[in-house]
Amino acid sequence: MTKSSFLNSDELCAPPEVCGDDAEAGKQEHLLSQTTNDNDGRITVFVKRDKPLLVAIAAMVILMNIKKLSHVLYPLEIFSTWIHEMSHGIAAVLVGGGISKLLIYPDTSGMAWTYTDGSSWKRGFVASGGYTGTAVLGMILLLFRRTYRGPTYGTIGLGVIMILSCILYVRNTFALVMLPLTAVVFILCAWQLKAKHLSYLYSFLAATCSFNAVDNISELYGPVGYVNGEEATSDAHTVAEHWGGTNLSWATFWLIFALGCSAVGLLFAFDGQTYKKDQKQKGASIGGGGQTHKKVIKQRDASNGAKPAKADQTVLPVAVPVGMPVPSAPAWSQVY
Looking at per-residue confidence, does 23 or 136 come out higher? Predict the structure, then answer.
């Protein structure tokens, strides 16, 4: 007999605040979209559980290589630039310095004006913080993509921090218009969208951060950088000046570091509570409330030729003649 495990309806994945008035229906829809069968192979399970991320990566690769469609990614490029410049600023704060101002330009370039005590190693650390900080954030977003409230809180958190950065540090008109609008969109999406739809936006944000170094590979290995259409010293040249080595060696290090962070985020993502409980309970059939349990009962009754029980009726055990095989319930594994 194949044994099944069930979870109560209040343990399902989607937070009620992103489902609106149809919270229960939204939770069921989100759960069933990620439900796997015990007979599914590893690749099938991965595709079902990480479909939003796979769609985000595929869409980004396609859009980046089709010039007429590349403008669709423009808001994400501005977001990536903001993360990059904020990472420079956070690096300065970590070594005892601070942020004077941040500038984000329409050509998706940016500039972080920071200050330290002037020591060479601190200036190199700040210059290196852009690409490494963005890669680390991408890894963190990927790690929490399967958790109960990670996408909701992550998207809202990014929006709130973006607004605060505009109040404290951003000082050019374009950025003061574009960034707050983007932040409001993030917050509204996180608050209003159902969990399965929000996961696509969250996956786009995670992929944007993770592949920042890959997307800017020409700038990484180029002889100079460009900010607002004017030549400027690249981060790789600045680090080489203060820490030694060459700009090419540092560019290669950042590229490998970004790919490594992406691999960690992809392979070691935290599983949501629903999935972890399911794994612990697998192999032992337990009772449970909720619509999914009722659906399985109806399917079992239909397969036995019995009249489905109503929601308020108790399903009583039926005696089975000796020698007749005992029918089993469908094997469902609830995954978040």
Answer: 136
